């Protein structure tokens, strides 16, 4: 697409006389290249118009909806459920951070899982990065 408001310098056909030109004679060529890049730069910004903004949001809407439904809502629900005691047969009872205290102080399986995760992170991941 060429912007009709911007005009490029006219091109002259090359002749045998052009072989002996000095660097000063190519000023027009460098100006043409410079103006061409400026035109492209301006046209790139001119392609984004505010009246097209709703179309961009419309195309992004399915991705944001999926992110909200499959990532954000489950994370918030899991965080909310971590502060209650609930066995699916009785109504949830708010216990605050008691579940976390129980997990960190009285659960040997959690401590073993935490140790395995730390070991994997500190040893295996760097070795994998080095020896790939």
UniProtKB/TrEMBL annotation:
It is a multi-pass membrane protein. Its main location: membrane. SUPFAM superfamilies: MetI-like. The keyword Hydrolase does not apply. It is found in: Cell membrane. GO terms for cellular component: plasma membrane. This is ABC transmembrane type-1 domain-containing protein. The lineage of its organism: unclassified sequences, metagenomes, ecological metagenomes. Keywords: Cell membrane, Membrane, Transmembrane, Transmembrane helix, Transport. InterPro entries: ABC_transporter_permease (IPR051393), MetI-like_sf (IPR035906). Residues 1-30 are annotated as: Disordered.
């Amino acid at each position: 697409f060429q912007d009709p408001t911007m005009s490029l310098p006219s091109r002259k056909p090359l002749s045998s006389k052009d072989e002996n030109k000095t660097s000063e004679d190519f000023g027009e060529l460098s100006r043409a290249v410079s103006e061409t890049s400026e035109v492209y730069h301006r046209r790139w910004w001119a392609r984004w118009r505010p009246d097209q903004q709703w179309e961009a949001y419309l195309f992004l809407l399915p991705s944001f909806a999926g992110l909200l439904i499959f990532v954000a809502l489950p994370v918030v629900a899991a965080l909310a459920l971590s502060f209650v005691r609930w066995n699916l047969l009785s109504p949830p009872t708010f216990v605050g951070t008691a579940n976390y205290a129980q997990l960190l102080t009285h659960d040997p399986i959690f401590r073993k899982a935490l140790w395995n995760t730390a070991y994997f992170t500190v040893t295996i991941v760097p070795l994998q990065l080095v020896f790939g």
